[in-house]
Amino acid sequence: MHATLARRARIGDICTMRRRLVFLHGAGAGADGAPMGPAHLLDALQADEGGRWRVELPRLGDPEAPEPEAWQADIARALEGKAPDTVVLAHSLGASTFLQYAARAKAPPRLAALVTLAAPYWGVEGWQGDFAPPPGYAAGLAGVGRIVLCHCRDDDVVPEDHLIRYVNDLAEAETRELPAGGHDFEPPALDAVLAVLRRLNRSAG
Predict the structure, then answer these.
(1) Chain centroid to CA 95: how far?
(2) How many domains, in total, are found in the chain?
(3) What is the C-alpha separation between 23 and 42, in angstroms, rounded?
(4) What is the CATH number of the domain that holds 133?
(5) N or C: which end of the chain has fewer CB within 10 A?
(6) Domain encompassing residue 164
(7) Cβ-based neighbours of 166, under 8 Å, separated by 6 or more
(8) Is 1 domain-assigned?
């Protein structure tokens, strides 16, 4: 179930943790105007491994009326000056907009990893709009150490074939195709995402 992210931390706040993780939310907002997202995942991140994540929750544009340029600008601000051991965890529209941002950035972002959750593939039937990354967008990910694409087969928002399209575009990406969990990666899919993040954390030393 979606929950307002501001219930877990004010948007833009930094929780005091060790390894920096930037969470890019998807579209939609609660009654208070704060972005919506899988708050159970954020709760788990803040508790996982004894609180070894330093989680940042930037607000991206207007969550209820997303504009590509505004969201890309906010992603750029969120990542400005970040150390190259930063991990980006991006959900739904936040994931596809990150790909668009990376492809258009003057300097490709340097990150330890990008983990996408239920990323929509724009430009296919039923998914027309201005959020599609340009041709050759994979080149914008040259500075990302690892890419992990996660998707649940029972996602009723973003069809499973979107993952297949990304796999075809991003030859170096790892995939985690999970049998259940929906669009918001409810348990047990949550556990699989946490396992991915733990491995990334430990591989960075």
Answers:
(1) 4
(2) 1
(3) 9
(4) 3.40.50.1820
(5) C
(6) 23-203
(7) 116, 119, 121, 149, 173
(8) no
